[in-house]
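REVIEWER CHECKLIST
Item 1: Sequence provided? yes
Item 2: Single chain? yes
Item 3: Sequence as submitted:
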Amino acid sequence: MPDTFASDQLTQLIPSAQIAATPSQGAVTGIPLYLSTTAPALFTTTSTLLGVAVGLSLHSTFIWSFGDGQTSTMSEPSPIAHTYAKPGNYITSLTVSWGGTWSAGGYTYDVLGGAITQQYQRAITVHQGPTAFHK
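Item 4: Structure as written out by the authors:
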């Protein structure tokens, strides 16, 4: 009996990703921090499973959680700007949710059972930014 099921083998083909932040040294309150990911918007591959060529075509949705109660959902891996209001240490997380189709033997099927998800995290240190003084 194989170590993994066919669906697990297909899931393992999806590339892993990272979260990048600019500036990379941390954020400053009141000034946007730009976050991006190396995950692609579309992933396609063909693999042989149990002697059958199986095609996989998946599109991704990017769900950002900035660790301060704010979230954002995107359909592209474009950089996203987020401005922190308070200094501190935050864990920014990214859920990449994959949905799409698989094909074999000339037939195409929807991926069933919910989206395939990947989770990534990055620690962000936010420093106190400039303040405005009024008379």
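Item 5: Key structural point noted by reviewer: Residues 6-13 form the longest helix (8 residues).
Item 6: Recommendation: ____
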